[in-house]
Amino acid sequence: MARIVISENVSVDGVVEVGDGFDRGDWYARIGVADREAWAKLEYDEALGAAALLLGRRTYEWFVAQGWPSRSGGWADRLRELPKYVVAGGTDPDRWANTTVLTGPVADAVAALKRDIAGEIVLYGSGRLARALLAADLVDELRLVTYPFVVGAGERLFGGTDAVRPLCLAESRTVGEGLVLLTYRPA
């Protein structure tokens, strides 16, 4: 049985997406070289440990628009070879190798993936999908790379919730010189 792992970049105040306005966004460009290199290694290592990727439509489209299907290098090669599952209609799975579009209710489709795949299914980005999986109690681990910025506005990973969801801190460590990886599991 697979484990669903949400892997997010988040500001100190919980923002995961700022929309198209890069006056508040593009945190990666604002961190130092040591942080960028450490973050890239962290992401590459995570991809090496994954059995599959899970993406929402907007995150899938972002990866395609950024040229990931044809990029070179270890991380890009690994993402290309991994099975990718996209939750959303209207997505063209032929734009990135090994992509399957999931159909039906999200919770049911992801629960079926958990039963059918062994290993980690890593969810990149996809804030709305992450919130839906959290609400359906399908998430086994949260990995939050916290950037040293207070953004003030934007989409947050944790919006309104129907219940308190206790978490247990499994790991915390510095990544580079200024990022922090916080790993939580359901309590």
Give the SSE layout.
Blueprint: E1 2-11, E2 15-17, H1 27-30, H2 33-49, E3 50-56, H3 57-65, H4 74-81, E4 84-87, E5 99-102, H5 106-116, E6 119-124, H6 127-135, E7 141-147, E8 155-156, E9 167-175, E10 179-186
Parallel strand pairs: 1-6, 1-7, 3-4, 3-6, 4-5
Antiparallel strand pairs: 2-8, 7-10, 9-10
How many helices does DSSP assign?
A: 6
User: Biggest sheet, in brief?
Assistant: 8 strands, mixed
Strand line-up in the sheet with most strands: 5-4-3-6-1-7-10-9
Q: Tell me the CATH topology.
A: Dihydrofolate Reductase, subunit A
| Gyration radius, rounded | 16 Å
List the helices and strands in order.
Answer: EEHHEHHEEHEHEEEE
Average pLDDT over all residues: 89
Helix content: 25-40%
What coarse outline follows from CA principal-axis ratios? globular
Low-confidence stretches: none
Task: Tally the beta strands.
Answer: 10
Distance from N terminus to C terminus (CA atoms, Å) equals 19 Å
Task: Provide the CATH top-level class.
Answer: Alpha Beta
CATH superfamily heading: Dihydrofolate Reductase, subunit A
Strand content: 25-35%
How many domains make up the coordinates? 1
Which secondary-structure class do the elements indicate?
A: alpha/beta
Second-tier CATH architecture: 3-Layer(aba) Sandwich
Pfam family, one: RibD_C
GO molecular function: 5-amino-6-(5-phosphoribosylamino)uracil reductase activity
Organism: Actinocatenispora comari
Protein name: Deaminase reductase
